[in-house]
């Protein structure tokens, strides 16, 4: 039971980090109708910038804040110089162009920081465990990640649902042409949304850096899961991104705990340990297929 509780907390933590990636991705796709495969590269830049700035600044928080602002600036510059020319192109052209940006981003990181993975240490204040009762010891840093993820989700909801800028975002996601007719500056809105998405990527990269390896290409694998979250939640929907990310996070982490145990009752321990993680990964896509069969537009689509 303690292992299941710990896995559930890990699922919530991983799901909230997926939400930070998927929120920007779903807004970019929903408002701009833009498939941006380079979204994961911004996550990688956020992690690398944080790792590079921790030592000179002497503060994880300060390094993270600077990395967030720098990554947001990189994202907005990228939108204004490169991606803006792709809005009128078909999705195949967008996929090819943004895939090229992935390759360019990986090589830029290699040139600046080298090919070897970088170590991003845990903040000293959150390096120990917390006693949750019932004999459960859980890392305090993972609880911090959960708290930050929930706070960002709440803040993003308030911005999107309660502010004028959020009204423009919702209008653009629902009907871009009508929003333009009503006087919304779509070009400025696109830049703002892309910058926000890049900032959220940096938050996820900085927070996951101490838990995962900060290395070249780290954004590609997690980008696939972010797209799965967008499809499950519904394109353009922040609420859908949150629901989908928590579902994917829970299925992934809890599945990696329960599936090998279940297989261990039938197969040998070595077969169960090798087969279990693979089947747990497959469960994510089974979940996506089930949701699409039930609701083809996702759980909370912004349009329609």
Brief summary:
With 304 residues, the chain is mainly alpha-helical. The protein has eleven helices and two strands; from the N terminus they run ααααββααααααα.
| Proportion of residues in extended strands | under 5%
How many DSSP E strands? 2
Major β-sheet profile: 2 strands, antiparallel
Low-confidence stretches: none
> What does the radius of gyration come to?
20 Å
What is the overall silhouette?
globular
In the sheet with the most strands, the strands line up as 1-2
Note the gap between the termini: 42 Å
Contiguous helical run count:
11
Structural class: mainly alpha
* Nearest-integer average pLDDT: 85
**Helix content range:** over 70%
Sequence of secondary-structure elements: HHHHEEHHHHHHH
Main location: membrane
Subcellular location: Cell membrane
Family: Belongs to the binding-protein-dependent transport system permease family. LivHM subfamily.
Keywords: Amino-acid transport, Cell membrane, Membrane, Transmembrane, Transmembrane helix, Transport
Can you describe what's shown?
Helix content is about 75%, strand content about 5%. The protein has helices spanning about 1-30, 40-55, 60-80, 90-115, 140-160, 165-175, 175-180, 185-210, 220-235, 240-265, 270-295, and strands at about 130-135, 135-140. A two-stranded antiparallel ribbon has the order 1-2. α2 packs parallel to α4. It is globular.
Topology record:
Blueprint: H1 2-32, H2 39-57, H3 60-81, H4 91-113, E1 129-133, E2 136-139, H5 140-162, H6 164-174, H7 176-181, H8 186-208, H9 218-233, H10 238-264, H11 269-294
Antiparallel strand pairs: 1-2
Helix pairs in contact: 1-5, 1-6, 1-8, 1-9, 1-10, 2-3, 2-4, 2-8, 2-9, 3-8, 5-6, 9-10, 9-11, 10-11
């Amino acid at each position: 039971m303690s292992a299941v509780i710990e896995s559930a907390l890990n699922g919530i933590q991983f799901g909230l980090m997926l939400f930070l990636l998927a929120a920007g991705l779903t807004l970019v796709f929903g408002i701009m109708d833009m498939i941006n495969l380079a979204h994961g590269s911004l996550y990688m830049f956020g992690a690398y910038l944080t790792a590079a700035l921790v030592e000179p600044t002497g503060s994880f928080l300060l390094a993270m804040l600077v990395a967030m602002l720098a990554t947001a600036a990189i994202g907005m510059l990228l939108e204004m110089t490169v991606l803006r020319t792709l809005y009128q192109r078909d999705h195949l052209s967008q996929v090819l162009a943004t895939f090229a940006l992935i390759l360019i981003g990986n090589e830029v990181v290699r040139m600046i920081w080298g090919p070897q993975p970088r170590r991003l240490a845990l903040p000293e204040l959150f390096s120990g465990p917390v006693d949750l009762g019932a004999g459960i010891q859980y890392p305090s840093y993972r609880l911090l990640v959960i708290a930050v993820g929930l706070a960002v989700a709440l803040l993003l909801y308030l911005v999107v649902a309660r502010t004028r800028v959020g009204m423009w975002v919702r209008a653009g996601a629902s009907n871009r042409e009508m929003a333009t007719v009503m006087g919304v500056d779509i070009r400025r809105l696109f830049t703002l949304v892309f910058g926000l998405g890049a900032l959220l990527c940096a938050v996820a990269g900085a927070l996951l850096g101490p838990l995962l390896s900060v290395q070249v290409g780290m954004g590609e694998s997690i980008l696939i899961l972010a797209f799965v979250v967008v499809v499950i939640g519904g394109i353009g929907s922040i609420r859908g991104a949150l629901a989908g990310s928590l579902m994917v996070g829970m299925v992934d982490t809890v599945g990696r705990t329960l599936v090998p145990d279940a297989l261990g009752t039938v197969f040998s321990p070595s077969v169960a340990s090798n087969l279990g993680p693979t089947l747990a990964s497959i469960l994510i896509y089974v979940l996506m297929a089930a949701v699409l069969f039930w609701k083809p537009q996702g759980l909370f689509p912004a349009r329609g």
